[in-house]
Write a structure and sequence with these properties.
single chain, disordered N terminus
Length: about 250
């Protein structure tokens, strides 16, 4: 079984969700209709690489695991966005929890594991209280969602909190679509996985929890590097990067 060689103990799913949404400034109150969202350069590369947009995911395995054979198209209730998902997965409508004028859906595997949520019409407000060590495991542009000249990216990334004494809170890992600025140097701001989408912002992603014990999980997947090689991750990546305006 592979172990964490860089980031220590695994992180709990509950902390990941709270940390991700808290750091990204997800609204507790209804989102304004037209919040100011800065036009920022897309996150195009991992630390130490060039600023050119990647032509392929930099961390994908040489021989990717196969994806699901059968796929279906899901269209949001407002008819504005759609994405592909494995036919055996379920898209749960959580519209009652959505911000006014927005949509909120959750994607679950056949075993009932929550792997992603899609929310629209959310107010975004990037804050950077501190810069912390980070890693980027996977990165790919999503050109179908370009807005204001900015192409968002699907990213699987980590933030390491070395001062955190609780090992279950020391590592924050998440994947999703982001329009956040490109990190530079050895440290980066907290994870900000929201992207510009009219009339405000949207999010489509999830968190990685190596301790998840949902039945049906592939064995010995206790590092993000190992997770990259799984069919589940490749299905998630294919699903999230398929997000596009409805009808395209």
């Amino acid at each position: 079984m592979r172990r964490f060689s860089v980031i220590g103990s695994a992180v709990s799913a509950g902390f990941l969700v709270a940390a991700l949404l808290g750091a990204c400034g997800a609204p507790a109150t209804p989102a304004p209709t037209s919040p100011a969202i800065p036009s920022v350069p897309p996150l195009t590369s991992a630390p130490g690489s060039s600023d050119a947009a990647p032509t392929e995911a930099p961390s994908s395995p040489a021989t990717p695991a196969p994806t699901a054979a059968d796929w279906q198209i899901f269209t949001t209730a407002d008819g504005k966005l759609q994405f592909d998902h494995p036919a055996e997965w379920t898209v749960k409508d959580r519209g009652a929890e959505a911000t006014p004028g927005g949509v909120f859906v959750e994607v679950l595997t056949a075993a009932g594991k929550s792997v992603a949520t899609l929310r629209t019409n959310v107010a975004t407000g990037a804050e950077c209280p501190q810069k912390i060590p980070y890693s980027v495991f996977d990165l790919v542009p999503v050109p179908a969602l370009v807005q204001q000249g900015v192409t968002p990216h699907f990213i699987f990334e980590l933030r390491l909190y070395p001062a955190e004494k609780d090992p279950t809170k020391a590592n924050v890992m998440a994947y999703g679509i982001s329009s956040a600025p490109k990190p530079s140097g050895p440290d980066a701001c907290p994870i900000f996985q929201f992207f510009t989408w009219p009339p405000s912002g949207a999010s489509f992603g999830g968190v990685y929890n190596p301790l998840d014990a949902t039945p049906g999980n592939e064995p010995n997947i206790d590092t993000p590097e190992a997770y990259l090689e799984t069919s589940e991750y490749n299905d998630i990546r294919k699903m999230i990067t398929s997000l596009r305006p409805a009808g395209q």
